[in-house]
What does this fold into?
Amino acid sequence: MGPLLRYFVTTVLVVSAFFGQAQGTLTTYYTIPPTNGCDGLWAFGPASAMYDTCAAPFSYAVDPAGCGQSPWGWPPFWMSGDTVYVELCSVPCNLQVWSGNGLCQQLICQLGPLSMAENVTKEVTLFPNPAPAGTSHLVLDVSAIQRAQVLLQDLTGKVVLEQAVRRFPVQVDIGALSPGIYALHVAGPSGSAQAIRFVIQ
It folds into this structure.
């Protein structure tokens, strides 16, 4: 959690100049830096823009090797709707898309200093995490703000819970959720947000 509170994430899209390819536009929606193995998560999109400048067939690489993966094997990402997800094992992490003409896209996830103005939810805690089987509620506390919008997504990007919070700490109902990995997003009044990854065992 420390790196999540101290850093922000930028995504840079670089498209190779081979054969006069044009540049596409992709945006990072959120990133949860890894703290224990490959427990980080990077979500970006739109997925439809990934192949704007690429001709099939495609191949993929992550650089450095092993920095990103999919829980379902290769390729090192998965898609849900128009969002692309990568499990982060380390940062920076570059996702490369190759076509028959060479490297056509490179997406870079890197961390940099976070200013206090951007750090709206700088003290976010979620307990218990991981949540043992049968846990009905998590306790979410955000010390920097008192009002926020809380949103829960599963690994496919599906929103499974959304609630407005007027005072912290607050209980988050997870009784109806299946075991698995989820992302909890906290958006402050200014719109700035943080995300925490949590596991239901």
Observations:
- Helices lie at 2-6.
- Residues 17 and 129 are 45 Å apart (CA to CA).
- The chain has two domains: 2-113, 124-200.
